[in-house]
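User: I'm curious whether this sequence folds into something compact or stays loose and floppy. Could you predict its structure so I can see for myself?
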Amino acid sequence: MSIAIRPATASDISAITRIYGDSVRTGTASFELEAPDEAEMARRMKEITGKGFPYLAADDDAGQLAGYAYAALYRTRPAYRFTVEDSVYVAPTHQGRGVGRALLEALIEACAARGFRQMIAVIGDSPRQAGSVALHKATGFHHIGILPDVGFKHDHWCDTLLMQRALGDGGRSKP
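Assistant: Here's the prediction. I'll summarize afterward.
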């Protein structure tokens, strides 16, 4: 299967909403408890892209949206302005087929090209997110720390694993 990565557009919102909604309803990668509707997902995309952050889509051979990824500020305080947090979601039918890796690699490249220096992965419920942990490790992220029992979803406590990778010169030079 080949994957085509491109900027996501408003026409992708329906598929993005389905992919994210499935993750919210059945998984613990997101700590949201209710899946947002299309209007909310469109609002979020507009806010992210309006601030100049990359928002990418992955199409499979049949032209179906297989996944999406975006980056946004890790934190809003000004000193964090060179650090982004990544988000990668893959349709259940396309997981384990290289979609996540293609998206994350393109996202890393897009963020580095925009001058960001660090990327943080905030992985919820890490024991159940082995695929996400492996994906981030394979693309150069390192384990930074775990926040135990910070979320409660699907009747159990969930941790948050933090992983980080440098972009470009990282912290070796001034921006």
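Summary: The beta strands are 4-7, 55-59, 65-73, 83-90, 118-124, 142-153, 156-166. The two ends are 39 Å apart (CA to CA).
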